[in-house]
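Hi R.,

As promised on Friday, here is the backbone we talked about, encoded as structure tokens. Could you run it through your design pipeline when you get a chance and send me back a sequence?
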């Protein structure tokens, strides 16, 4: 997740997940876990995301892009 697609080119990534850290494969689909600690320092606004797949031949393909709206909550909780 980044502020914009242009931020990704600069390496300005706010949240990065992988199969080892926060992505779980299921049947069908996958789950991407975003914890309170991941967003604690992020301002509420509209952000950009990409889901990339690394194929067996080592190539990387963009599978999905889109926007994420981070909103404030009346009761914000963070994990220690």
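Update: got your reply. Pasting your designed sequence below so it's all in one thread:
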């Amino acid at each position: 997740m980044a502020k914009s697609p242009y931020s990704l080119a600069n390496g300005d990534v706010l949240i990065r997940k992988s199969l080892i850290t926060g992505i779980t494969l299921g049947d069908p689909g996958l789950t991407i876990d975003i914890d309170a600690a991941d967003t604690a320092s992020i301002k509420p606004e509209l952000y950009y995301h990409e889901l990339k797949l690394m194929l067996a031949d080592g190539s990387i393909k963009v599978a999905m892009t889109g926007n994420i709206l981070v909103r404030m909550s009346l009761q914000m909780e963070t994990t220690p």
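One thing I noticed while checking it: The longest strand covers residues 60-69.

Thanks again,
M.
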